[in-house]
Amino acid sequence: MPNVTKVAKVNKSNSYDRRQPKSWVRPSLNFAVLFDTHYPRLYAYVRSQVADREAAEDLTAAAFERAFSRSHSYDPAKASFATWLFRIAHNLVINHYAATSRNPMPYELDKVSEFSTTDLSPEQQFLRQEQQQILAETIATLSERDQEIIQLKFYGRLTNREIAEVLELNEKTVSVIILRALQKLKVRLGTQEAP
Looking at domain 28-108+118-189, what is its CATH homologous superfamily? Predict the structure, then answer.
């Protein structure tokens, strides 16, 4: 006869009944903390994709709204919250341009400093804006895929693995694209000789 006590202990040790949806077991996401943590990076990424500040703000808000309304479908075993959120934003940007029938407009990199707390002198601000404009023009010479990966890496501050998950690419492919894109940028900016 089977040991009933042992079976009961095994069932109690399971963290959840497999028949119940995972959302019943998983603790709820604290969206206030997630918003505070991810908003600056997500906004910087979306802003790098959308020239209009208001559209970038709307798309960033829509990404958080969609994440909140679909939090039941989030599976931390598949991706980090940041990766999932950036994937939502990526799709919203694509939908935005499909709906408006326009191509992405170049982003004004001086807007990145919106989240900077560094106090710069007027001369330093001017030099920074000039450098950012040169960088924006140089990034615009890259292919669309390279531009997006560079923007996810440096504006969104995502890891190569997260970028790979967002864009559904291999992580090594992302690493190679970043390396080659940075080399192209260095050559075009005159900080490195052509290979």
Answer: PhyR, sigma-like (SL) domain (1.20.140.160)
Question: For residue 70, which phi and psi values (nearest 5 degrees)?
Answer: -115, 20
Q: Which two tokens stand for residue 184?
A: 């192209």
Residue 138 vs residues 2, 118, 128, 134, 147: alpha-carbon distances, Å: 72, 25, 15, 6, 10
> What letter represents residue 8's amino acid?
A
Distance CA 87, CA 79 (A): 10
The label of the residue with tokens 């995502």 reads 158
Which of 183, 154, 186, 152 is closest to 167 using CA atoms?
Answer: 152
79-91 pLDDT per residue, tens: 889 999 999 999 9
User: What value, to the nearest 5°, has the Cα angle with vertex 137 and ends 135 and 138?
Assistant: 65
Predicted local distance difference test score (pLDDT) of residue 178:
92
- 19-44: b (≥16 Cβ within 10 Å) or e: eeeeeeeeeeeeeeebeeebbebbbb
The position carrying tokens 């999932």 is 84
DSSP structure class, residue 21: -
